[in-house]
Amino acid sequence: MYRNKRKKKYRENLKEQTEEAKRVRKIVFIIAMTVAVFLIIGAVSLFLYVHSAMKPVDPDSEEEVTIEVPIGSSSSTIASILEENGLIRNELVFRMYVKFNNETDFQAGEYTFSPSMEIQELVESLKNGIVMAEPVHTITIPEGLTIDQIAEIYGENLHFSKEDFLEKVNDRAYIEELMQHFPGVLSDDILDEEIRTPLEGYLFASTYDFYEEKPKIENIVEKMLTETEKLVNQYKAEIDEMGWNVHEAVTFASLVEKEAGKIEQRNKIAGVFYNRMEEEMPLQTDPTVLYALGEHKDQVLYEDLEIESPYNTYVVEALPIGPISNFAENSLEAVANPDQSDYLYFLHDSDGQIHYAETYEEHLQNREEHMEE
């Protein structure tokens, strides 16, 4: 009798426990389903939000919005600029997009965009320095010009004067600021007291588009330095291998630029300069004398060769203290890849041809034969 009661009690307890477990499982299932539903709703909502934020602000807009991306801007700074100007819907989504797609190397400068642009269009434009609008000014800066000549071109074509430009590029505080933004190109060498103009040679020769009626001098200078930086980076490995620092390479390229009127002459002339330096001979290139004189002359006189200047390669050994002009890419390429030869001398004839010699006697013979033409 007692045993039967215990069995009955056991079965009742077991049944209660089973029913309790079912209730618990049911509650857990309901909670889990509820959480899953909320997660799904949240994920869908997030997807829809991000998808919406990725779309153009106004696909039908024809408005043009000009922005400025400062040098050294992070993706967060750029995202803020774009959102503030109504070009993207959400800066956080833009930053996530950039990070997820590993987009880097955005270019500083002025851009004209539209609210109708996709995020990827904006990203590609910022990476490649491409703007949407037609330029207000297009100005060509030729190779072989000094900063003084560059300033004159800008002064004739833009709203500021030549003197305004020269004042800015000789402002030491501004130069030191630029050195922080372009550490791979601008070094302490340009601050030497005997350097005539710190940025001489560093403002790259090219055609530049400007999308504002009155571009700032700072933006112009930084745009030109950006091009120089791109070029130098292309040849950095060769420059290092040749044992030059960037300032020396830029200085060397300016000499090649001024001595070689034709592209095909530049690698050979660079080779001659290398040979002279290896022999510890002065470079004796007339363009450095003219730069030291600070004037243009059709003919350099013997008395000019004696001018005391760290730029005069008839007086100083090896390279001058700094560049004497800007230069084309092929001049820097020639410095990085000079022709191999035994030539130590060259001279130009009246037809623009260059005659090379291995010895001074051969050089004198070339002078007699070709300088009388």
Structure explained in plain terms:
With 373 residues, this protein is mainly alpha-helical. It folds into 4 domains: 26-55; 65-128, Endolytic murein transglycosylase (Dna Ligase, domain 1, 2-Layer Sandwich); 134-339, no CATH class; 342-373, no CATH class. 51% of the residues lie in helices and 7% in strands. The protein has 14 helices and 6 strands. It has a two-stranded antiparallel ribbon with strand order 1-2. It has a two-stranded antiparallel sheet with strand order 3-4. The protein has a two-stranded antiparallel sheet with strand order 5-6. Strand 5 and strand 6 form a beta hairpin. It is elongated.
Number of domains: 4
Uncertain segments are 44-48
- What does the average pLDDT come to? 85
Number of strands: 6
First-to-last CA distance:
142 Å
Beta strand %:
5-15%
Question: Order of strands side by side in the largest beta sheet?
Answer: 1-2
Structural class: mainly alpha
* Largest sheet features: 2 strands, antiparallel
Q: Compute the gyration radius: what is it?
A: 34 Å
Order of helices and strands: HEHHEHEHHHEHHHHHHEEH
SS summary, helix count = 14
Molecular shape: elongated
Helix content: 40-55%
